[in-house]
Amino acid sequence: MKTVVFDLDGTLADTSKDLIAAANACFVARGLGALLDPVADARTAFRGGRAMLTLGHGRAGLGVAEVEADYPLLLEHYGAHIDVHTVLYPGAMEAVEALRGAGYAVSICTNKPEGLAETLTRRLGVRDMFGALIGADTLPTRKPDPAPYFAAVERAGGTRGILIGDTETDRNTARAAGIPCVLVTFGPDGRGVEALEPEALLDRFEDLPELAGRLLAD
């Protein structure tokens, strides 16, 4: 079965404000104040918790030890406030429904810890739309290793597919898996993702069913 595998943060949902808030909670607890801006630093948010902590601590003159010490606190705060500001991108679930109706399997492959990804997708009311969800800790490896992608396809009942994402990590995952990559242009990087040379760009979810049909044509 043809399969469309989605990244989560920055692809299906804009989670940046809740992620930034979790990082800022760590900085505030140290008496440093809110070091990250929810808009200007959104790009870093989609690169993970440690990336946000590294950026903020770097601005405060702190280093790797503080990043690792604060990471559990970030996860705790984020888990408790996971859907305060998070929203699905316009048309995301309509596209997923259209793909399912056309006979595609759909799944999620994210570098968010699996438990948090499960919680978020259930809070958003969309978990049951996906045949599988693979998180950062589901397997011994994470993206850009291709194993999580392959697991996302297999567990959804698929045999071959494409990856929809928003960062270099997704591009490198697709390249390692030898499959087409589609990068969205509505994230913080905008059309800057074109420099990553994906097989296709996605400006709006409305276009995804037709695009998937072209990329997965027999």
Automatic annotation (TrEMBL):
GO terms for biological process: DNA repair. GO terms for cellular component: cytosol. It comes from the Bacteria. GO terms for molecular function: phosphoglycolate phosphatase activity. Pathway: Organic acid metabolism; glycolate biosynthesis; glycolate from 2-phosphoglycolate: step 1/1. Its EC number is 3.1.3.18. It is an enzyme of class 3 (hydrolase). InterPro entries: HAD-like_hydrolase_sf, HAD-like_sf, HAD-SF_hydro_IA, HAD_sf, PGP-like_dom2. It catalyses: 2-phosphoglycolate + H2O = glycolate + phosphate. Pfam families: Hydrolase. Transmembrane segments: none annotated. Gene3D superfamilies: HAD superfamily/HAD-like, Putative phosphatase, domain 2. PANTHER family: PHOSPHOGLYCOLATE PHOSPHATASE (PTHR43434). NCBIfam families: HAD-SF-IA-v1. Belongs to the HAD-like hydrolase superfamily. CbbY/CbbZ/Gph/YieH family. This is phosphoglycolate phosphatase. It comes from Vannielia litorea. The lineage of its organism: Bacteria, Pseudomonadati, Pseudomonadota, Alphaproteobacteria, Rhodobacterales.
